[in-house]
Amino acid sequence: xxxxxxxxxxxxxxxxxxxxxxxxxxxxxxxxxxxxxxxxxxxxxxxxxxxxxxxxxxxxxxxxxxxxxxxxxxxxxxxxx
Length: 81
What we know:
Layout: H1 2-20, H2 23-35, H3 42-60, H4 64-78
Helix pairs in contact: 2-3, 2-4, 3-4
């Protein structure tokens, strides 16, 4: 009984985490856009890279809402939908 409950709880947590964020997709989209050498000013490029790094840190810390907002700013600068 305890084993089944623990398994069910673990599966619910894993499914909830997987569905809760699309941070990895956002990071991939940003990386792909950067690989195309977009025409950005040095200031914009630095800001995009800083936002990308901050978004990844937030994602790893479990702050998916903040991560998505941060990565969204980077995507806006890059013109990524």
